[in-house]
Design a protein that fits this description.
Layout lengths: L4 H14 L8 E9 L2 E9 L2 E6 L3 E3 L6 H6 L3 E6 L4 E7 L10 E5 L2 E7 L5 E5 L6 H6 L1 H9 L3 H7 L3 E10 L2 E5 L2 E2 L2 E3 L5 E2 L7 H19 L4 H29 L8 H11 L3 H8 L5 H4 L2 H13 L5 H23 L3 E2 L9 E4 L1
Length: about 350
Amino acid sequence: MSVRRPLLDPILAGAAGEAGADVQLGTAVTGLIEERGRVGGVRVRQNGSEKELRARLVVGADGRNSTVAKLVRARKYNVTPSDRFAYWAFFENANWNPDAPFVFHRWENRLVIGTPTDSGLYQVIVIPELDELPRFRADLEGSFMEYATSTEPVAEALAGARRVGRFLGIVRWEGFFREGAGAGWVLVGDAGYFKDPTPGQGIGDAFGQVDRLAPVITSALRGSDEDLDRALQGWWRWRDKDTAEHYWFATDLGRGGQIPMPVPEIVRRMVNKGQMDSFFNILAHRERPKKVLTAPRLLGATGRLLVRRGSDRRALLRDVGMLVAEGARHDRLTRKPQYVEVGAAADAGETEVD
């Protein structure tokens, strides 16, 4: 489901207010209140004046370039640079196919997504490789439309459509985990875990984390500070276990270059057997990637390609070796994360508009 942020954000803020939260818009966090080695609240700037907000727990739910994460000096780990950038736009009067409303087209080095969104609009996302960024910046509209309409279903949807609003974009993002909790603080959503946006799981994952975190907080606040810290450390471990496979799946899905030869063969066989629901369940975070993209499926796809006339067997075996090696590396990093020093990695993406 695609819902634009100008519609979604007020819904969330309104729901928070109805639930009893004191919603203070136009308020920027400028610092932390620290007492006896713990975070005890935040300093904020509002309407040109400074004030303090005190609390036993500060929850940083402030996005991939989280201010709270910077202030508590939460380290990143398992950082993955992007091979791509993304631009997206919304169109009215699009003629999309109601029998196949969602388009995810990945072929050769191109990646295009099309989906209906709120208010009768149609959203198109293009995710080119970084070496194409100069031509997009030189002629954003022309490059965007050429790239988007190179996939037939999107071209048909946009015939006669008109763009509404500006182009939006993100370039040079990086995927990462951050240390998830400490004395008096916790990070949730993109603030603590940001992955390649290609599969579009970010907001859904954030809601899933909150569903798990909220009862942990309400229960732990009844106990001591030590009880609270212990409970949040447990939630952090759950978060990493719940998201690790999806993190590496998103990284692989958004990687530049040619698709490894066995992957389309695996998908083709799943389509022919009517098993694609299990693949879509990965995108919906209802299934773990390893339960769907299994070793037997990889071996079966490799065997079929090896005996298929015209297959480049050397390239096939090279791709299989790469997939196995990358899978082993991902498992190793999941067990023993690779940390980077605070400030050593760039912010996770620059947001662009036309």
